[in-house]
Structure formats: structure tokens, C-alpha cells
Design a protein that fits this description.
Helices cover 44% and strands 12% of the residues. By secondary structure, it is of the alpha/beta class. The chain has 2 domains: 262 residues, NAD(P)-binding Rossmann-like Domain (Rossmann fold), CATH 3.40.50; 184 residues, N-(1-d-carboxylethyl)-l-norvaline Dehydrogenase, domain 2. The chain binds D-mannonic acid (CS2).
Length: 467
């Protein structure tokens, strides 16, 4: 039997489940990119806010690429189980915040209608770094934008304006530096190119607060689904697994009401930047380093790589001496304690987190995770040996090619390597005007050092010379 409102009464008492009339709530949020992260993070905050009495914030999830989540959740009335795995065992909670999942290519009008609905006050996004359709130079790639959320959101906003409805709070929940401002700029660019008549309304009526979002959410495995099925006595195709820890910091800049996320532990602050930069450079920076260096050393999971004595000092160095020192902490933000807590979270073996999942889309992640740190130190004439070692491992990963390189620019970079060879690769990627735009303008000495580390890589599995 499948999980749904009809079968919910079979769920044993120790499994938490909606104790409010979830089906009676109006849809107040449209979310683009309803993957596991959203279900384990924002939807969970929203579910608890509704359970505590703040009503009418049900979520319409939108998938842009695949009908999978719609097929998992719609037959279950949007219900799914969140399994949190930590030191004190597993906790299960059936989440009731998601009302429906729309597969955008199958029914774009339904998505536009939800954005335009008077009940909708918020649009949120977890579309991954590449979903923002940025060009190499950081502006909007109009061709890629057509295949992402931009046309749907814009059409919905046009209808709102025509109906004299209020604007929306649009919240990027992706790991981009300054995600609110970036989204506002890209959306403004899209609207200016396609519907300039909407431009001033967009600026006046909508808000794009920045956020820092944090929870480790590995991809759900078949074993996770089986374990949850045994506990529930019901089949749940939508299970998500996460660590117990969760953090959400949101800039206090809203176009209208928002759920009482703060009552459920979210922090609403005037400036997100110090939290966001610390998270990107320390957590995500260390994650990406563990991914490329760990894969080379034959590891599959984060908890294995972080306990490898050949890697752990380098990760410590990257977090504490390179990333943390490049940051300006907010009052009360203790970066040393933050590094301690990150290392403990990475070591959680109850939550196997695949390095390959993190290694994905490096071209979209590396600038805010590593190059910002490098740029900061480089301006002061300081070295970052740990970040350079990680960067060298990423370059070997790109050179290696093959199925493990899951990156929208993977083929482009491998072709580049074939053209310029090992000696020219660092320069072709990172020199100002090179393939990767960033604030880091490396000196020749730094590029030489990077090339030395890249060539010295012990596990460069593919030794084929450029042809
Ligand atoms: C990870 C993140 O996949 C990745 O690149 O670094 O998804 C990470 O697990 C989250 O940002 C943690 O909040």
C-alpha cells in the first residue's frame, strides 16, 4: 500500500505526521526545483510553521526537467517521509506541506496560473547553480534561460500585474554568492529583454532576499526507501534523508507576508552575507575539495574521505587557515567553532553522502567555493596551498573526462585541455579572460604552482597525452 491521506492512519504513532488539516491549506508558495533538498529543508520548515498555526502556506512544487518527483508525490497527495539520521538514530516525519507537483513542460499554463494566483505570496527556487542560466561572463544566457524558470515566472508576474495583484517575494535557495542580488539582476535582465513593460513593476513590487541554506541531503537510496517502508508499513516513493542539523538565514526584505519560518528556527537578519560566505567557502569549499581529492584516493563517501589521514590536514588547512581567514565574521559568528561543527557533520557515517554527488557541476560551484578565497589572499600576496591542491585535483578530474564528470561545461574543458596540453591548462582556465570568470587574477607564479600541483597528482588515472 502506498502512503497517501487515505492510508495515513496506518502510520505508527512514533512516526511524526501532519496534525493539522494539511489538505485544507491554500497554496501560498510556488517552488521551482522540487528535489530532495527542498523537501528536507524549506518544506520541512513550512510544514512545522503550519502545524504551529500559521496557515495557508501549502507548496506547489514545480519540476523543470523530469516528471519523476510528480510521479512519486502526486499519487501520495504530496505526502513524503523525511528521515533524519544522526548519532541518536533515525527520526521519521511525514511532511504535509507539499500540495502538488507540476511537471512544467507537461503543463506550463498550470505553473503560470499558480504564480498568478491571489493566494500565492512567495516563489522559491532550488534549481541548482546551473539553473540560473548564467553565461561565462556572469550575465544571463538568454537561450539557456528559455529552458529554465524565467519564462514561467515572468508570465505569472505579467498576469499578476494585469490583475492588480501584489508582487511576490522571490527567494533563491541555491548555493550562489549573493544569491538574492544575483537572481534579481538576472530576472531584471530577462524581463528587460522580453517584457520591458514589466520592468518597473518588478523592481517596485517584488523582493529578492538573499538566503543561506544549509542541510546535508544525500540522494535517497533504494535501501532508504525499504527501511522507511518497513517502519511505516506503507510504500513511500518520495522518501528524503537528511542530517539532523539544519540552518536557514534569510535577509529581512519581503514583498508581503511569509510563513513563520523564524518560529521554527530560521534566522531573519538584515545581512546574510557573512553567513553565506562562511558556508560557501568553508562548508561547500571543503566539500568540493573532499570530492575531487577523495575520489582520486578511491573513496566513495564524505565520511570516508574526511577521516583519511592523507586528506584531513589539508581540509583543516583549507577551512581554518585559508577560507576562515578570508572572511569577516558577523558579531558572535565563531568561525573556529563553525569549522569544528562542519568536521563533525562530515564524519556522520549514518548518512553516507556520495562524493560523486558533490563533484557534479564543478564549473558552476568552484568560483564561489574556492576562487573567492584565492582572490582574497592573492590580493594580499598570500598563498593558499590547500585550495590550490584541491583546484589541481579538479583539473585532473576534468582531464580524466568520462561518466564521473557530470558538468555542463565538462566537454568544453576537456577539449580545451586537448588543445593547450597539461602545461597550458591552468592558464587557459583561470587567467583573466580565461574560460572561468572570477575575481581571482592569478600571477604567473601562482599558475605555475597550480600546474606543478596538477602534474604531480598521484592518482591521475588517465595518463593519455593531449592529441
Ligand atoms: C554540496 C552541497 O552537492 C554539493 O555540492 O556541497 O549540496 C551541500 O551538501 C549543501 O550545500 C549543505 O547545505
Amino acid at each position: 500500500m502506498r502512503l497517501s491521506y487515505r492510508t495515513l492512519s496506518h502510520v505508527p504513532d512514533q512516526v511524526l505526521h501532519p496534525e493539522y488539516d494539511a489538505q485544507a491549506q491554500k497554496v501560498g508558495i510556488v517552488h521551482f526545483g522540487i528535489g530532495a533538498f527542498h523537501r528536507a529543508h524549506q518544506a520541512w520548515y513550512t510544514d512545522r510553521a503550519m502545524a504551529a498555526g500559521d496557515r495557508d502556506w501549502a507548496i506547489c512544487g514545480v519540476s523543470l526537467r523530469s516528471p519523476d518527483v510528480a510521479e512519486q508525490l502526486n499519487p501520495q497527495d504530496g505526502l513524503y517521509t523525511l528521515s533524519t539520521q544522526g548519532g541518536s538514530g533515525e527520526e521519521l516525519r511525514v511532511v504535509g506541506a507539499v500540495r502538488e507537483v507540476l511537471f512544467a513542460p507537461g503543463d506550463p499554463q498550470a505553473v503560470v496560473g499558480r504564480v498568478a494566483s491571489p493566494d500565492t505570496r512567495i516563489v522559491t527556487l532550488t534549481v541548482t547553480e546551473k539553473g540560473y542560466a548564467r553565461s561565462g561572463g556572469g550575465g544571463l544566457d538568454q537561450t539557456l534561460a528559455e529552458r529554465s524558470f524565467y519564462p514561467l515566472l515572468t508570465k505569472g508576474l505579467l498576469q499578476r500585474r494585469a490583475a492588480n495583484l501584489p508582487g511576490l517575494t522571490v527567494i533563491s535557495c541555491d548555493n550562489l554568492a549573493d544569491n538574492g542580488r544575483v537572481l534579481a539582476a538576472l530576472m531584471t535582465e530577462y524581463v528587460a529583454a522580453h517584457h520591458p513593460e514589466l520592468s518597473s513593476w518588478l523592481v517596485r513590487e517584488c523582493r529578492f532576499p538573499a538566503t543561506m541554506i544549509d542541510r546535508i541531503v544525500p540522494a535517497t537510496s533504494a535501501a532508504d526507501k525499504e527501511r522507511v517502508e518497513a517502519a511505516l508499513g506503507l510504500r513511500d516513493e518520495g522518501v528524503v534523508v537528511a542530517e539532523p542539523f539544519s540552518q536557514w538565514v534569510i535577509e529581512n526584505d519581503f514583498a508581503g507576508p511569509v510563513p513563520d519560518w523564524a518560529g521554527q528556527g530560521a534566522q531573519i537578519v538584515p545581512d546574510v552575507a557573512p553567513y553565506e560566505a562562511a558556508k560557501l567557502r568553508m562548508l561547500n569549499g571543503a566539500h568540493s575539495a573532499l570530492a575531487y581529492l577523495g575520489l582520486e584516493r578511491g573513496h566513495d563517501y564524505v565520511h570516508e574521505a574526511v577521516s583519511d589521514p592523507a586528506l584531513s590536514p589539508l581540509i583543516e588547512q583549507l577551512m581554518r587557515r585559508e577560507a576562515a581567514t578570508s572572511l569577516e565574521p558577523a558579531p558572535g559568528q565563531d568561525l573556529g567553532a563553525y569549522a569544528d561543527s562542519l568536521l563533525a557533520r562530515f564524519a556522520n557515517s549514518a548518512l553516507p553522502h556520495k562524493l560523486a554527488q558533490i563533484a557534479m557541476d564543478g564549473s558552476q560551484k568552484i568560483p564561489q567555493r574556492w576562487l573567492a578565497t584565492l582572490a582574497w589572499h592573492s590580493r594580499r600576496g598570500e598563498e593558499c596551498p590547500a585550495v590550490l591542491t584541491a583546484l589541481a585535483a579538479w583539473m585532473r578530474h576534468l582531464r580524466h573526462g568520462g561518466p564521473l564528470v557530470n558538468d555542463p561545461r565538462g566537454d568544453e574543458f576537456r577539449t580545451l585541455w586537448r588543445e593547450v596540453g597539461d602545461d597550458g591548462f591552468a592558464s587557459a582556465l583561470f587567467k583573466q579572460g580565461g574560460a572561468i570568470a572570477s575575481d581571482w587574477s592569478p600571477q604567473d607564479a601562482q599558475l605555475n604552482e597550480l600546474t606543478r600541483r596538477y602534474c604531480a597528482g598521484q592518482l591521475a588515472a588517465n595518463t593519455t597525452e593531449p592529441s
